[in-house]
């Protein structure tokens, strides 16, 4: 009996230790990284326990909190993509009074959400399970130029017009032929006229949370108490779920400035032959999601060799952080030399190769004290420019206090 108890105690201690080592991570703007357990979020303060102490950190001084859970690669059900690129995996129910009603896949106990039409970019009744199909659809949505609502049929055709509404059986829209009703079962997805979208983003402190089903939401308020999250979305819906369903929490509007939200002062591109490439914000250079090492990133910059992005700093920032890698869409190809320059001085240089399942390279934190200019540079590698799709993942500037 005593031996059994001792074995149980040893197992408990080691299991507890493993849990602690593999626990949550909180990254601070001062460069400190805490490992331990997220205890509470209240009044824009994070309470975080490490092995030695309980730390209280203002949300404005947090880069992100990761909770050690994997991303969902094949979420089921429907998907709503908002104008700010938030993604809501949900059962698509019906439309009502200039809104679409949905029920969250990850939190079915939460009341139905009413999402205003003016905040929505696209709605998919059934999001595909295969990653390649997902990427193709994300690219298609990003490249749309039509100035009307578009309705895509399951047979591959599409129709243009003005969205009127849908229920469980029927989908209605207005077109040159007049008001039209078709079976909802024949509609794969639909997109709204980008000129009519209106979803301004606040400057105040807010949060982006990622759930285990792939949902990515911006919320204006966030409270964690007794392992339960309570939040309010930017379109007014209430979210309540267990912390176990959260992958990461990223404060926005504090001391952290995502580089992707700034306009570069200069962009230079040198073609290997004749093809010209631009750069993309929060997408890879071919308009797909930023994905490196089978991990998708919400923010970043997509470029192609050989390219330079220049940013004016004006001495406002104290540090820069980023990850960098070859996008997964290259299937393990691509080879480039990347470098970071501060005031024309190379402070980081690395060869980056496309390798299947290889995670993005973490660039050491770069001091920007007094700096006037930041340059992200990508040069040709050993394979000319073949498959040189480079993602700068989660690049952030840290403001001075």
From TrEMBL:
Q: Which domain of life is it from?
A: Bacteria
Q: Which residues form the Glycosyl hydrolase family 98 putative carbohydrate-binding module domain?
A: 256-399
Show the InterPro entries listed in the entry.
Answer: Galactose-bd-like_sf (IPR008979), Glyco_hyd_98_carb-bd (IPR013222), NPCBM_sf (IPR038637)
Sorted keywords for this record are: Signal
Q: Which residues form the signal peptide?
A: 1-22
Tell me where the transmembrane regions lie.
Answer: none
Q: Name one Pfam family in it.
A: NPCBM
Q: Could you tell me what this protein is called?
A: NPCBM/NEW2 domain protein
Which species expresses this protein natively?
Answer: Gimesia alba
